[in-house]
Amino acid sequence: MPKGGKKGGHKGRMRTYTSPEEIDAQMKAEKERKKREEEEEASNDNLVEEKLQGSGSEDSDDEGSSKKRGLEGLIEIENPNRVAQKSKKVTDIELEGPRQLSRREREEIERQQAKERYMKMHLAGKTDQAKADLARLAIIRKQREEAARKKEQEKKAKEAAATAARGVNSLSLK
Questions:
Q1: pLDDT, tens digit, for every residue of 68-114?
Q2: Cα(66)–Cα(76) distance, integer angstroms
Q3: What is the mean pLDDT of residues 25-41?
Q4: What's the rounded Cα separation, in Å, for the pair 41 and 46?
Q5: Are 127 and 136 in contact (CB under 8 A)?
Q6: Comparison of pLDDT for 42 and 107, the residue scoring more
Q7: First and final CA of the chain: distance in angstroms?
Q8: Rounded distance between C-alpha atoms, residue 51 and residue 57, angstroms
Q9: What mean pLDDT is reported for the chain?
């Protein structure tokens, strides 16, 4: 028997498409469901506020601040593994205090400082690479000066030869 079992398989089946009327009906049902949920939440919030105002105590503060969904409102179960999010007040946050840097941040800062120190030493000519560069530049300057001197001497020699040749030519013509 060939791989895949029966002849044809699932690829030859006819495709079905959702009609626009069905899509509209689904959208309306979804909107109605959301409206009902919002109304229920609003009524639950009103009841909680009335209870808080009527009792005058603020012990059940976490019931009003956190929205309970589904059966959570009916059954009070506390998960021992759940870590409660602690909200921080703006006054409690220390912005100006010394902040602990992560290892990567610390290493990045150290790397930048080392690079800056090296560049200062390099510009002052104290590193091996800077000394090698300066020596290379001095050699190049000497070579260029020698080349300029040689050109000048050759130019003078050509001029002298040209003037001597003119002098010989002028004497031979006389």
A1: 677 666 777 777 788 877 787 777 776 666 678 899 999 999 999 99
A2: 13
A3: 93
A4: 9
A5: no
A6: 107
A7: 121
A8: 9
A9: 80
HEC profile of the chain: CCCCCCCCCCCCCCCCCCCHHHHHHHHHHHHHHHHHHHHHHHHHHHHHHHHHHHHCCCCCHHHHHCCCCHHHHCCCCCCCCCCCCCCCCCCCCCCCCCCCCCHHHHHHHHHHHHHHHHHHHHHHCCCHHHHHHHHHHHHHHHHHHHHHHHHHHHHHHHHHHHHHHHHHHHHHHC
What sign does the dihedral 105-106-107-109 (CA atoms) show? positive
Task: Using the predicted structure, report yes or no on whether residue 19 has a pLDDT greater than 60.
Answer: yes
